[in-house]
């Protein structure tokens, strides 16, 4: 499909298209291969790298957070994660390069503390327990209490006199890793010394978000 045909199939706006694809993906089981003509056409709009000549799609849990991600599988049995949201942004021409860079940098900082001593200790402590929000006893997600992650990161960048958009990242190890090992090490130390971690159920974790805190610009 060309751009106009794909827009007509997915919806008149980015929001409608996003809802359309999200609803479809919810019908697919994890680790089960499937085909989809609209998604295959959408891959032509993937930013940064070409996604072509692949065999099928699949939903998989991908580290470091093991959340469901859309992957494409190749003839050599390798697979790669793809972002259908970013494809939609290009399709509907709503890309914001500065915002995209900022999101990648934030993700790099999140990945850096994923396996920090404090996070590992919190995961072991709150693997299954009583949610700090609703008190349900379920498998818990680790959340930042008192100061949200965004505020901790802003304060760390201010301490280092760094602007978020000036932080260098790479894709050589895992997506959006920090290029400077020293910066990553300093961030992990700062995070673990200043973060208060609690266990929340999925619903409470999602509704809490960053408690209204917004990243500083730049």
What does this structure look like?
- This protein is α+β, with helices and mostly antiparallel strands and 218 residues long.
- It has two domains: 89 residues, Nuclear Transport Factor 2, Chain: A (Roll), CATH 3.10.450.40; 112 residues, no CATH class.
- Helix content is 42%, strand content 17%.
- It contains nine helices and nine strands.
- The strands form four sheets. Strands 1-2-3 form a three-stranded antiparallel β-sheet, with no helix packed on it. It has a two-stranded antiparallel sheet with strand order 4-5.
- Helix 2 runs antiparallel to helix 4.
- It starts with a helix and ends in a 10-residue tail after the last helix.
- The mean pLDDT is 88.
Summarize the helices and strands and which ones pair or pack.
Blueprint: H1 3-10, H2 14-26, H3 37-42, E1 56-62, E2 67-73, E3 79-81, H4 84-91, H5 97-112, H6 117-125, E4 128-130, E5 137-139, E6 141-145, H7 149-159, E7 169-170, E8 177-178, H8 181-194, E9 196-200, H9 202-208
Antiparallel strand pairs: 1-2, 2-3, 4-5, 6-9, 7-8
Helix pairs in contact: 2-4
């Amino acid at each position: 499909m060309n751009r106009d045909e794909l827009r007509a199939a997915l919806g008149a706006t980015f929001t409608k298209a996003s809802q359309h694809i999200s609803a479809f993906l919810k019908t697919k089981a994890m680790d089960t291969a499937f085909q989809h003509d609209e998604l295959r056409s959408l891959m032509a709009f993937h930013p940064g790298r070409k996604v072509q000549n692949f065999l099928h799609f699949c939903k998989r849990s991908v580290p470091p957070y093991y959340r469901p991600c859309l992957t494409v599988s190749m003839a050599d049995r390798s697979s790669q994660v793809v972002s259908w949201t970013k494809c939609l942004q290009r399709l509907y021409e709503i890309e914001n390069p500065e915002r995209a860079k900022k999101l990648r940098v934030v993700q790099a900082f999140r990945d850096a503390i994923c396996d920090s001593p404090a996070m590992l200790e919190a995961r072991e402590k709150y693997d299954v327990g009583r949610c700090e929000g609703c008190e349900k006893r379920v498998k818990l997600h680790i959340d930042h209490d008192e100061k949200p992650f965004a505020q901790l990161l802003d304060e760390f960048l201010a301490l280092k006199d760094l602007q978020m958009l000036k932080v260098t990242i790479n894709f050589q190890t895992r997506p959006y890793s920090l290029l400077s090992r020293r910066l990553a090490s300093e961030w992990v130390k700062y995070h673990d010394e200043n973060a208060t971690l609690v266990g929340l159920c999925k619903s409470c974790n999602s509704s809490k978000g960053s408690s209204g805190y917004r990243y500083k610009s730049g």
